[in-house]
Design a protein that fits this description.
Layout: H1 8-11, E1 14-16, E2 23-25, H2 46-55, H3 57-66, H4 74-79, H5 83-98, H6 105-118, H7 122-134, H8 150-153, H9 156-164, H10 171-178, H11 187-209, H12 234-237, H13 250-253, H14 258-278, H15 283-296, H16 311-316, H17 322-325, E3 349-350, H18 356-367, H19 371-384, E4 389-390, E5 393-394, H20 399-411, E6 415-416, H21 423-428, H22 431-442, H23 449-453, H24 461-468, H25 470-474, H26 478-498
Parallel strand pairs: 3-6
Antiparallel strand pairs: 1-2, 4-5
Helix pairs in contact: 3-5, 5-19, 6-7, 6-11, 9-11, 10-26, 11-22, 18-19, 18-26
InterPro entries: AhpD-like (IPR029032), Sestrin (IPR006730)
Keywords: Coiled coil, Cytoplasm, Oxidoreductase
Subcellular location: Cytoplasm
Length: 499
């Protein structure tokens, strides 16, 4: 069955969960009689999130100042486990959606809907459907892309590439959008749109990666909006995605006791630090290790035991409901491993060639005033966010571990740092953590509670939430990936305008 639809006979094998509206296989014997898990997250205990919100009055102030919804929604509650990052996140998001900028307010929310739809994130879709209507959006547009102006439809191609394979973006994609004509985009408008797309692709990863629950709605009889769904429901909890049903013993997953797991990780960090001081790898060896890690990432997730069924079967089960598919084209287009099997001499984006600091910042800030400063603050915050703790251990330098996380994410998008030894990735990131990171980064809609529970089992939930912010750092490379071609095109556009 393809991902965009099904034949009548095949459709008979599926049903919709009456609670979350997700498409399910009948032969999975789904049980949906229980209420949804309580709290803002299906993964994180409610008491831990509530405690963070209670003791930090700063969160309530931030919601009053910068929340576009005007309330403490589930995303904000979970993100408040890191109040510093939350402030930076809310300020930048508020600026994109509400402050002066190239795009009309309704267009901003519709672009957010289009971005969230690429990852089937109904939670974000429904949030921005409400905001779209509140800001004067035309209700007919919510019937699907065929009802929106052509210039918005023209964002489909760059939307799907940014979401799944950003390395494929070329100057032709940009040129097609800004060419002269009634449906063209100005460069400031395009930068605003691209920032929104990248922001909501990353936010979808946070929603799925932290198990954000549907919002409670007092106007609905059962307390929830049936259409406000994400990937988590009792239909997941009833089918082996819960900690109670998922055996996490070493015999099943090859994972050692959580205490010795933590001690082993700290010992590896100490050993790697000592090896760095004793001998530095050559540039040739660093390149070899990057290529090895890039190819090894092929074997993470595919056919992995953390899935409840083989990867090939999983592809067939990816059915997109009409509530989501109406906002996208080419629903079968998704992430494809950057280092595909059987291919040699694959192109790699050297991060030092076009950096955020030297190129991306100036580009976005010139075309979309002040957004560069807000994004820069957000990038620096997430990259440096640490409390120098690892579970029960204090005064720990976590720089090495954090850099391994960020660079592993970038590696899957073909981005390489010349000064980083990628051999450290395999030393510091266990397989279960790699499975989780790759899933959240590349196809977040597949994330399960079992994946979340399988790694860093002795760590605090707040530390695991910090791990999930890694993909948002990839946003810093969006403008650098297209920067070279956009700069050339900008010059051409200015020349044409003068003539």
């Amino acid at each position: 069955m393809n991902r965009g639809g099904s034949s009548p006979s095949a459709a008979a094998n599926y049903l919709l969960c009456t609670n979350c509206r997700k498409v399910l296989r009948k032969d999975k014997r789904i049980r949906v009689s229980q209420p949804l898990t309580r709290g803002p997250s299906a993964f994180i205990p409610e008491k831990e999130v509530v405690q963070a919100n209670t003791v930090d009055e700063r969160t309530n102030f931030l919601v009053e100042e910068y929340s576009t919804s005007g309330r403490l929604d589930n995303i904000t509650q979970v993100m408040s486990l890191h109040a510093q990052y939350l402030e930076s996140f809310l300020r930048s998001q508020f600026y994109m959606l509400r402050m002066d900028g190239p795009l009309p307010l309704p267009h901003r929310h519709y672009i957010a809907i289009m971005a969230a739809a690429r990852h089937q994130c109904s939670y974000l879709i429904n949030m921005h459907v409400d905001e779209f209507l509140k800001t004067g959006g035309i209700a007919e547009w919510l019937n699907g892309l065929e009802y929106v102006p052509q210039r918005l439809k023209n964002l489909n191609e760059i939307n799907k590439l940014l979401a799944h394979r950003p390395w494929l973006i070329t100057k032709e994609h940009i040129q097609k959008l800004v060419k002269t004509g009634e449906n063209n985009w100005s460069l400031p408008e395009l930068v605003h749109a691209v920032v929104l797309l990248a922001h909501y692709h990353a936010l979808a990863s946070f929603v799925f990666g932290s198990g954000i629950n549907p919002e409670r709605d007092p106007e609905i009889s059962n307390g929830f909006r049936l259409i406000s769904v994400n990937n988590f429901c009792v239909c997941d909890l009833a089918n082996d995605n819960s900690i109670e049903n998922a055996s996490l013993t070493g015999s099943n997953f090859g994972i050692v006791d959580s205490l010795s797991e933590l001690e082993a990780l700290m010992e590896r960090m100490k050993r790697l630090h000592e090896e760095r001081e004793d001998e530095e790898a050559s540039q040739e060896e660093m390149t070899t290790r990057f290529e090895k890690e890039k190819k090894e990432s092929l074997f993470v997730v595919s056919g992995d035991t953390f899935h409840s069924f083989p990867h090939s079967d999983f592809e067939d089960d990816m059915i997109i409901t009409s509530d989501v598919s109406r906002y996208i084209e080419d629903p079968g287009f998704g992430y494809e491993d950057f280092a595909r099997r059987g291919e040699e001499h694959l192109p790699t984006f050297r991060a030092q060639d076009y950096t955020w600091e030297n190129h991306g910042f100036s580009l976005v800030n010139r075309l979309y005033s002040d957004i560069g400063h807000l994004l820069d603050e957000k990038f620096r915050m997430v990259y440096n966010l640490t409390y120098n703790t690892m579970a029960t251990h204090e005064d720990v330098d976590t720089t090495m571990l954090r850099r391994a996380l960020f660079n592993y994410v970038h590696c899957m998008f073909g981005i390489r740092y010349d000064d980083y030894d990628y051999g450290e990735v395999n030393q510091l990131l266990e397989r279960s953590l790699k499975v989780y990171i790759k899933t959240v980064t590349c196809y977040p809609e597949r994330t399960t509670k079992r994946m979340y529970d399988s790694y860093w089992r002795q760590f605090k939930h707040s530390e695991k939430v910090r791990c999930m912010t890694a993909r948002s750092v990839c946003l810093r490379h969006v403008s650098t990936i297209i920067r070279k071609d956009c700069e050339k095109l900008h010059v051409k556009v200015l020349i044409n305008q003068r003539h």
